[in-house]
């Protein structure tokens, strides 16, 4: 077979590029093609990724290719494919990596139903791979069954780092101001808000994978809009035991803890997830394990209100605490950030209402919203004090009574402030009319 240079857009096998001989094309997608290749003996099978370039092609595929070309050579270990070579963008971009022998988790899902032990074993292997990745200051951010390859020995390999984040390299997607949150069913709440640097996003995606392995369903469906994605900031999934009644409580506890909308309430490391999956007798059971339905209307309303001004949780990557200058768990700092986030996202005026009155309306809405939030946070602060074990006797906590108090105090403050401001504006308008018409 005659070797010939690979040109952009060329299909099929038989080409040669920098000493690599292309075999059959095993995948062709919107962002590029993957070929089996042979070349300098490395002791393992290889593939070549070639991005689509040229007029009319989506530049996002090229950016993802650049990210993977930058991050993959810096990674090592049994849970990532070995990097072989890469081509320059100025000539012909390509990436040669190890071909992983095994099957994707997507194929494993087709063998359902899986027992709880099988789900736990598979989930622990994925958690091991994530822990190895996070120790290398990298977040995958596109964890899904198609990107998880199970070797014959049971180890899991992570593939496709086109959306990944590495703490020591530039974040090209952020620099391009592109929203890149991976596959919708597996996206974490903080990814929806634009944060790409938190390893706990991968733990959320692991929870989605565990839920899917255990029930055959996706906990949040497959939303196609940003509004659908934002639902997971406040809406909890149907408990997996409702869809798979044979699911043991310890496994439901692990799954729902991974899927907590607030990253602070999730597992803080993938290693902890792996340990619990391998040691079910040591899993501390909470209300999550006994949950038999989604949250009620009042609880969902409270979560929705909080999510309106939500802000990404603090990152867990090295050096973040020093970067922001202080304790990342400072409640007051979090409140200030949420307040600024809500003010920044105030709804714009309608074109026909532009002017002083529209600005006043927006100001009233912002102040009322802030008063409602401060009312809720005030009650939450009292609750926090009550829950702290003091030297004396610990008060009993009634969550239902507190929820009613939260809503009542917040609404009372919001309506009171809004009423005062609107009455003041009405009086000012009346004085202005009297001055103008005598």
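Q: What amino acid sequence fits the structure above?
A:
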């Amino acid at each position: 077979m005659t070797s010939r240079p690979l040109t952009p857009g060329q299909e099929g096998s038989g080409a040669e590029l920098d000493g690599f001989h292309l075999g059959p094309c095993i995948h062709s997608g919107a962002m590029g093609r993957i070929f089996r290749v042979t070349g300098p003996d490395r002791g393992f099978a290889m593939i070549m990724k070639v991005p689509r370039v040229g007029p009319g092609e989506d530049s996002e595929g090229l950016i993802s290719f650049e990210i993977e070309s930058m991050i993959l050579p810096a990674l090592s270990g049994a849970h990532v494919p070995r990097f072989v070579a890469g081509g320059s963008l100025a000539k012909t971009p390509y990436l040669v990596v190890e071909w992983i022998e095994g099957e994707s988790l997507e194929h494993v899902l087709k063998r359902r139903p899986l027992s709880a032990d099988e789900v736990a074993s598979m989930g622990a292997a994925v958690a091991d791979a994530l822990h190895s990745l996070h120790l290398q200051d990298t977040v995958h951010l596109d964890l899904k069954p198609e990107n998880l390859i199970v070797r014959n020995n049971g180890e899991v390999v992570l593939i496709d780092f086109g959306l990944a984040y590495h703490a020591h390299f530039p974040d090209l997607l952020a620099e391009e101001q592109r929203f890149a949150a991976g596959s919708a069913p597996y996206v974490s709440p903080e990814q929806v808000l634009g944060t790409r640097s938190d390893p706990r996003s991968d733990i959320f995606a692991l929870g989605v994978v565990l839920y899917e392995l255990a029930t055959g369903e996706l906990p949040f469906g497959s939303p196609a809009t940003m509004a659908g994605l934002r639902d997971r900031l406040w809406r909890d999934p149907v408990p997996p035991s409702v869809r798979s009644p044979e699911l043991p409580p310890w496994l439901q506890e692990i799954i729902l803890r991974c899927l907590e909308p607030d990253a602070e309430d999730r597992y803080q490391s993938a290693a902890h997830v792996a340990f619990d999956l391998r040691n079910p007798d040591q899993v501390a059971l909470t209300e999550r394990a006994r949950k038999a339905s989604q949250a009620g209307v009042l609880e969902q309303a409270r979560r929705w209100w909080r999510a309106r001004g939500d802000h990404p949780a603090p990152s867990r990557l090295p050096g973040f605490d020093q970067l922001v200058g202080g304790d990342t768990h400072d409640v007051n700092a979090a409140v200030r950030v949420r307040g600024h986030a809500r003010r920044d996202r105030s709804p714009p005026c309608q074109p026909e209402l532009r002017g002083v009155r529209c600005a006043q309306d927006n100001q009233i809405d912002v102040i009322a919203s802030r008063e409602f939030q401060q009312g809720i946070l005030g009650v939450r602060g009292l609750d926090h004090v009550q829950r702290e074990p003091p030297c004396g006797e610990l008060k009993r906590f009634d969550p239902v009574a507190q929820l009613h108090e939260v809503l009542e105090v917040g609404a009372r403050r919001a309506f009171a402030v809004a009423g005062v401001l609107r009455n003041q504006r009405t009086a000012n308008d009346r004085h202005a009319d009297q001055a103008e018409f005598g």
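Q: And what stands out in the fold?
A: The two ends are 97 Å apart (CA to CA).
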